[in-house]
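To fix ideas, we quote verbatim a fold written out as tokens:
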Amino acid sequence: MLDSDKDGLISSSAIDISQLSTDVLEAFSPLLIEMEEIDQTLDLKTFSLAGSRLFQTLDINKKNQIMLNDVGQKSQKQEKKRKMKKLGLNHKFKPQINKNSRIMAERHLKQYG
């Protein structure tokens, strides 16, 4: 999400913060500012570790704001799926049980009820 040029590196010159909420941006601004000040580029793993360490220093209220925002985004995606389904724009994928799996399940039911 943050790797705007998709090179596997996060840098202050090539970072996409447009998808971050205000709460997340505010919480992680010390990391982003430090990266900019020392012109640091981090790979995704190192950036994740640094972000995780920074997250651990936040007070419980700030952590909750960030986590609740994430839940809010997920619920928005679920709502979009519901609307698409209601409008008949759902996918046509229909999973099917493998024939052998069905036979095994039937045998199991006969044996164990």
